[in-house]
Amino acid sequence: MTSTDQHDPDRKQPPLLMLGHSGLFDTEFYLANNRDLAHLGSEALLHYHLFGWREGRKPNAHFDPRWYCETHAEWLGAETDPLLHYIEHGEAAGLRPISWFDPHWYRANHDVPAGMLALAHYLFNKARGGVRPMPGFDPDFYLHAYPDIALAGLDPVEHYMTQGFREARRPFAGFDPVDYRRTHLAEADLDANPLLHYLARRDAPPAPAPPTASRTTIADEVRRTSAPGPHFETRRPLPQGVVPRALLLAYYLPQFHPCTENDAWWGEGFTEWTNLQRGLPRFAGHYQPRIPRDLGHYRLDDPAVMRRQIEMARAAGIGGFAFYFYWFDRKRLLDGPLEAFLADRSLAMPFCLMWANENWSRRWDGSEDEVLLAQHYREEDEAALVAAFVRHFDDPRYIRLHGRPLLLIYRVDVIPDARATIARWRQAFRRAGAEPLLVMAQAFDCNDPREYGLDGAIEFPPHKVARNLELINQSLDILDPALTANVHAYDAVVERALAEPPAAFPLIRTAAPSWDNDARRQGHGLVLHGSTPSRYEDWLAGLIDRAVTQPFFGTPVVAINAWNEWAEGAYLEPDQHFGSAYLNATARALLRGRAGDSPRDAAHALLLVGHDAYPSGAQRLLLALGARLRADHGVMVRFLLLGDGALRAAYEAVAPTTIAAADSPAVADLLDGLRARGLAHAVLNTSATALLAPALSARGIAHVQLVHELPGLLGAWGLLDPLRRSAACASAVIYPNPFVRQRVDAALGAAAEVLPGAPRRLLAQGLYTATRFSTTARRALRARLAIPPDAPVLIGCGHGDLRKGLDLFLQLVQLDLDRRVAGRAPVHAIWLGPIDPGLRQHLGAEIEAAVEAGQLHLPGQTEAVGEWLSAADVFALTSREDPLPTAALEAMACGLPCIAFRGTGGVAELIDAEPALGACVPVGQTAAMLRAARAAARRTQALPARQRAARGRTFAARFSFTDYADALLGLALPATRRISAAVLSFDYARYLDQRLASVFGQTHPLDEVLVLDDASTDDSVAVAEAAASAAGRRITLHRNARNSGSVFRQWHEAARRARGEWLWIAEADDAAEPEMLARLAAALDRAPAAVMAFCDSVAIDADGAVSGDGYKPYYAETVGTLLDHDGVFDGPEFVRTALAERNLVLNASAVLFRREALLAALDSCAGALATLRMAGDWRVYIELLNRPGAQLAYVAQPLNRHRRHALSVTHRLAAGAHLDEIAAIHEAVSPGAGARQEAYRRKLHQQFNGG
After folding, report:
1. Is 526 helix (H, G, I), strand (E, B) or coil?
2. 247-592 CATH choice from 3.20.20.80, 1.10.10.10, 3.30.428.10, 3.40.50.2000
3. Where do the Glycosyltransferase 2-like domain residues begin and end (predicted)?
C-alpha cells in the first residue's frame, strides 16, 4: 500500500495504518530524537499515537504537534491525534503542520501526485533539492551560502527556522535579516523570526519595506570572506617536465618570525601576522580579512615551513624567490630565514636578493616620521656591503642571467649621489670577482634606470601602474566612515599594465595577484579592488607573452608581487576564501602563455554543468566525462554545479569547480568572466541544469542539452518549462535512446514547433566504470553471504524509492517467500544503494522480515559494484520509469541478463529489440518478473564463466565510454579538428618528459597521444609512462621489440595506428609552444584542400638554449619574403617555388599532416625512402604536395622548437651521402638539375669540406 491510499473515499483505514502509510511518520527520526524510546523499534508509531503527541514529541522534522494543537485549537478535539487530524482534514483545509510549511502554496508550486499529501511529497524529495516548503526560503541558496550547514548534513529549513534566523543567516539571496530586524522588529525579542514576520505582513497594508540585499555589515562581510567563495580551488600542480615559457620570480617577505628588534619596537612576539589581524572590510565587497589556509599562521624559524613553500611554489611554476634583504650600515635584520635557506642546499629553489634599502620606520602603522633604523650609505661600509652580496652570489642556486648574478635594489632614489655611488659599487664588485646585473625597482616615480647607470628595472606594482588612476571610492557602499584609502579597480590596473608599450631599457614586468594594505594602514592605505584569479591570470599571461618576445638579458623573466605579503594583500599562498586559486592561475598562465582561458585558447574550453554533487548516476557520469576529456584529449574543462554534495572533492580533483545556485550572483559573475576570456561552449548534463540555459544564451555561450529524464520526473520537479526553453536555444539536444526522445518530445509539445533549429541526436551514455565479471569475486561474496552456489541471485540497484520500484523489488522476495517449493533453492535478492527514508519507513516491517529470512541483502552504497554483480545471476530492473540506467548497463557488461517492465525506458527497449539480453514483462506484474528472473538465472548458472565474461565484454564494447566522450566532444566543440599526436622516440629519455609536457600543454584538444618507442635502450618507456601519470593524461604506448631501422617506418606506423583526421608527428627531442596546434588548425580553415600545414621554428641546442629568432633568413635565400607572413599555397606551386632547391620544412615536428594523404604519400614513395636517410622528409613533403588541387597552410610565427644537436664525426663523414640524396631529390623534382640546384649543391659541398 502506498501513500496515495489514505484518501480513498470508499474505505476508512484504521488510525495506525493511516499514520503508517501517510509518509508522515519517520521512525528513524522519532527514535533518534527521543533516545529514551530507542528500545521501541517498530513499536514507535504506536507509542506516538497513544502518548507521543501528548508529550510534544514530533513525528517528523516538519510536524510540531504542540504548535499544531495551539494554532488550530478550534479544529481539534481534546483527544485528537494532531497528525491524524492533519492527514484526514488539516492539509486539505490549508492548516500548516508547522509555521514554515504552507501546504496549499506547496501543492500549487510543485507537481504533487493526486492523492499524495503535500507534506509527504516534501519529505520524500527535500534531500534531492529543487523543492521549497514555502515562499521565501531557498534551501539550495542556504546550503551554498552556509557550507557549515551542508557539511554537517543539517536540514536547511529546520536549521534556519530553529537557529539560523537567530544567527542572522539569510533565507534567500535577496533578504537582509539584519536590516529587516533593525527596521521592522526593533521592539521584538530575538525569538521573532524576520522571514516569517515579513511573509505574514508583506501583502497586508501597511506592508513592510521589501528586504534588500544591498545593505551589509562588517560582520556580514567577514562571514563572507572567511569562508570558501565561488572562485575557491584546491591545488592543481603543473605537470612534471613542463618547459616554462618564462622565469617567474616571486618577491618573498621573511617577516614571519620573532626577532629582537621587532620585540623592542612593536612588542614581544611581533611578526607580520600581528599586522594581519587588523584588516577589516571597510566597504561592501571589500576582501578583508585575509586568512591563511594550507600553511596556516606559520613561523619561518621552523625549517619545515620553507620546504613546504618551495614545494608549493615550484608546483605552480615559480622559478625563483626574490628575498627581501635587510642591511643597515653593516647590521642585518630579519636574516634568520635566509641564513637557514643558505645552510640547506636541499631547498631546491633558485633565488636572488632585493635589497630593501629604505629607512626602517613606523610605516607599518602609518607613522613614517619615526625612523627606527636608518641607512647612511657610508663609503667606508661599501666593501662590507659588497662582500655581503657576493657571499650570496656564491651559492649555486643564485639566479644568473648571461652569467651575471641578478641584484635588485628597492629605493635607488634615496641613495646619495646615486650614479656615482653605484659606479663605485661596480668597481668594488669587480674587485670581488663579481659583476652583477644591478636592477632598480620602479617605485616612488623613479622609473628610468639609465639615470643611475643601472642595467635595468623591475616593476613593483601598485607603484607606477596605479599612478593617477581613477578612484572608485564614490561608487562604494562605505561601511567605515573614517575610510580615506585610495581604492582603484583591479581591472583598470590590469588594462593599463597590459597596454603599456615596450620600455626603451631592459625591464622585468611584474603582476600582482592583489594589493590591499588595510592590515597595515587600517582604512588609510591603497586598495586594488575586485581581483579574481582569472583576471590575475590574464595579467600574468600577458606579461609572459611580452617577456618571450622581449627577454631580459636573454631570458624571459616576469616577477610577481608577491609570494607572501599578507598584510599588503599581495600573496600567492592559499587562503580560506580562494584556496589555491591564485597558485593555479599562475600555473595556467605559465603553461598556456596567452592565458589558459584567453579568447584564442578558450575556443577549445568546455564548461560542464551539473545539478549537484550527489553521488548518483548522472553526477558520476558528468565527473567521468570531465576526467576523460582532460585525460584523453587535454580539453580545458571547468565544472559548474548548481548544488553541493559528497562528490565535490572528486570534482575538484579533476578540474576547477564552482558550486552556486543557477540564479545566484556568483554564477552570473562566473559566466561573465568565462565569456570575457572567450569560453563559448557548455554541456548541460541534466534537465535540472536547463535552468541555466537562458543565462548561457544571453552571453553567447552555445550549449548542448543532455536529457536523461522521462516526463514523470520532469513534471514532478517542474522541469518541463526550463527544458523547453533550453531546447529552443540549444545547439543540440541529446537523448540516450528513441524511447526517451519520443516521450520527452511528446511532453514538450510538437517537436517541429518547440525545437526549431535544435538538432536532436541519439547518443547512449557510455559505461564509465570498467565492470567485468569475476569468478573469484562471485565465490567470495556468495561465501560471505552464505548463499549456496545453486541459489538464484537477483540484484537491483539505485536510490531505493518508488520511481526505482524498490517496493516492487521487495515484492519479488515476498512472492518467493510465500511460494516456497520443496527442493527448490530460494531466491536471494540484493539491493545496491541507499533506501529513501520515507519508503524505508513505509516498508520497514516487510524489509525486516525479508532480511531476517536471509533472502534480502542490503549492502547500501558501495564502490565495489562489479563484485556484487559478479555474485548475481540476473538483474531485476523494477523501475516504473528509467531512461537508460547505468546500473543496468553495468549489469549486462558483467554478463547478466536483465528483466524489466515493458515500456518503462531504454533498457526495456533494448531487450525488446534483442531478446537475448533478457526479458520484459507487463508493468507491475511482479509474479511474471519473478518467473522470468528464475528462468534467466538458471541460464546464467549453466553458462561457463568464460562465456559469461565474453558476453559481458561484447555488450560493454557497444557502450564504450571513450566513444561516448569523443562523440559528445564533437557535438559540444564542433569546430575542433580531430588531431592525433604521435611522439616518436629512440633513446630520448632525457627529453621525453619535456616533449610530452609540450604535447599535453597544447591548447587545442587532441584526439589521442601515441608514443611509439623504437626499441630504446634507455628508460624512455618508463619516462613516458611517468610523465603521463604526473600530468593526469592517457597515452597509448607502442614499443618495438626491434629497432625499425628507419624513422619513416615509424611515420608509417603512426599514420596507420592513429585515428584522427590530422596527424602531428612530434619528434621526442623537440618542443612546441602551447598554441602551435591551435594556430595550425585555424590556418587550415583558410585552406579546405590542405594536405599539410606547418609553422616556422626556432632552433634550440641540446640544453634547450634558443639560438636565433627563426628560420626566415634561411627561407629568404630561396623564396625571398614569401614565408615572412601567414599564407595558403597551391601544393605543386609550392614544390616548384620553395622545395625544388632545398627543404624549407626544416623540422617535421612543425607539421600537421592530413593523415590519409600522408599514408598515401608514404606508400607512393616507399621505394625512394628506403634509400634516403637524411632527406626522406623532404621527399615526403614533395610527394604529398605535388598532387593536383593539394594546398599548404603556413603560419609564420615560430611556434615549434627544433632541437639541433652538435654534428658528430659520423655526420661529417656522411656529407657525401647527404649530397647524393640531395641530388636524387633534385632529379625527382625536375630531371636535369637546374642552375639553382647545382649552385646549392656546390655551396653545400664547400661547407661540408670546410671551403
Report:
1. strand
2. 3.20.20.80
3. 983-1096
- Block residue for cell numbers 579533476: 654
Task: Say how far apart CA 903 and CA 918 lie, in whole Å.
Answer: 14
667 neighbors 1004 (Cβ within 8 angstroms): no
d(CA 714, CA 720): 6
- C-alpha grid cell, residue 184: 521592522
Question: Position 34: which residue type?
Answer: N
Q: What is the pTM of this model?
A: 0.63
What pLDDT is recorded for position 215? 61
Q: What is the pLDDT of residue 617?
A: 83
For 720, the 3-state DSSP assignment is: helix
Tell me the C-alpha distance between 1010 and 1071, whole Å. Answer: 16
Q: What angle do CA 1076, 1077, 1081 make, to 5 degrees?
A: 125
CA distances from 790 to 344, 826, 828, 947 (A): 67, 10, 11, 18
Residues 149 and 161: their CA atoms lie apart, in Å, by 13
DSSP state of 1039: E
Three-state SS at 505: coil
467/33 Cα distance (integer angstroms):
63
Tell which CATH classification among 3.40.50.2000, 1.10.580.10, 3.30.930.10, 3.40.50.300 matches the domain 601-762: 3.40.50.2000
pLDDT score for 240: 61
Q: 1066 to each of 413, 997, 1186, 1200, how far by Cα in Å? A: 51, 12, 23, 10
Q: How far is CA 681 from CA 271, 408, 652, 698, in A?
A: 48, 45, 20, 13
**Cell numbers given for 632:** 584523453
Q: Give every CB contact of residue 143 below 8 A, 6+ residues apart in sequence.
A: 149, 150, 156, 643, 644
Stated as kind and residue range, the H or E segment containing 511 is strand 507-511
For the chain, list residues with pLDDT below 70: 1-13, 128-129, 174, 186-190, 201-215, 239-243, 362-369, 592-602, 750-758, 822-823, 1206-1216, 1231-1233, 1248-1251
Q: What is the CATH number of domain 775-959?
A: 3.40.50.2000
Burial of 210 (0-12, 13-18, 19+ CB in 10 A): exposed
Residues 1122-1156: tens digit of each pLDDT: 999 999 999 999 999 999 888 999 999 999 999 99
* Joined grid coordinates for residue 236: 592543481
* Phi, psi (rounded to 5 degrees) for 586: -60, -45
pLDDT of residue 1232: 56
What are the distances in angstroms from CA 489 to CA 53, 261, 473, 478? 60, 37, 10, 16
Dihedral angle, C-alpha 383, 389, 394, 400, nearest 10 ° = -130
Distances (CA, A) of 864 to 535, 829, 871: 43, 17, 12
For 114, the 3-state DSSP assignment is: coil
Beta strand 351-355 pairing with 404-409: parallel
Cell of 806: 524498490
Q: Does domain 977-1205 have CATH number 3.90.550.10?
A: yes
pLDDT of residue 595: 32
Which residues, 6 or more positions from 404, have their beta carbon under 8 angstroms from its beta carbon?
A: 435, 436, 437, 553
Q: What are phi and psi of 249, to 5 degrees?
A: -105, 135
**Residue 453: C-alpha distances to residues 460, 559, 907 (Å):** 19, 22, 79
Residue found under cell 508547522: 98
pLDDT the model gives residue 109: 80
